[in-house]
Amino acid sequence: MTTALSHIPPPPCRLYVGTSGYSYTEWVAAGFYPPGTSPGRMLALYARHFSMTEINATAYQLPRAETLERRRRQVPPTFLFAVRLTRTLTHEIDAQRWPGLAQDYRDGLAPLIQTRQLAAVLIQLPPTFDRTTAHRRHLAALLDVLRGLPLAVEFRHRSWANDRVLNELERRQVALVTVDGPPTPTIFPVRDAVTSPDLFCIRFYGRNGSGWRSGKTSRQFDYCYTDDELCEWVEDRIGQLSRRTGRGILLFNNHVQAQAPQNALRMIRLLRRAGWPVESV
Questions:
Q1: Is 155 inside any structural domain?
Q2: What pTM does this model have?
């Protein structure tokens, strides 16, 4: 049985729903893209359904302005992008080089900044990035260098889950990323905290606990949310978050068999049925 959705007057928060990435060949086999769709055509087709996406390729290489400009031209001018921060600033840190790389990262985002299509810079920290003095100092310096961008931090170690951290994010007006995923002993717990007046962000990984423990991407993100699970978010959390900020982005990363676009489309329908405004394409 699907959870009943109460109709609550919506707050003045603009909601954007999409997926973490869009260029997956398995989405052709799953039927989201037409047969024979090439990777170069996927973004334009994706943008017929969604008003935003997450660019995750930038986690592995710095963004290039010319590349983002080409992508931007494939979508409507109201379409938004969340962009992952590069691993050399979060995972593989060279103390001498990272400030220059951070500036290169900013320069690469120029097309999206100029057109106001940058929804968020997603700073995903590794599970090994616990709250030590060295890590606290690096994160503070990183946020200083990236100041002025719409920043959202995703902690993956529970040592960061305390009020002092949330208060500092709020002081800096940096959003805390809320994650829906399988619980593990060290993962950062779900916190319904709004630390930016401009943004909240939820990333849906799926709840495949055994797959997550396997460490294999093909299993970790192989999960399809039920209506009841999605409705729990609509009823219990999205409403609370929306009342405290101006924009919310919801990104589905359970991409293995194209569950992400399926669940994202369903989430849009459930939000609208409950009376919540969702930005359309």
A1: yes
A2: 0.92
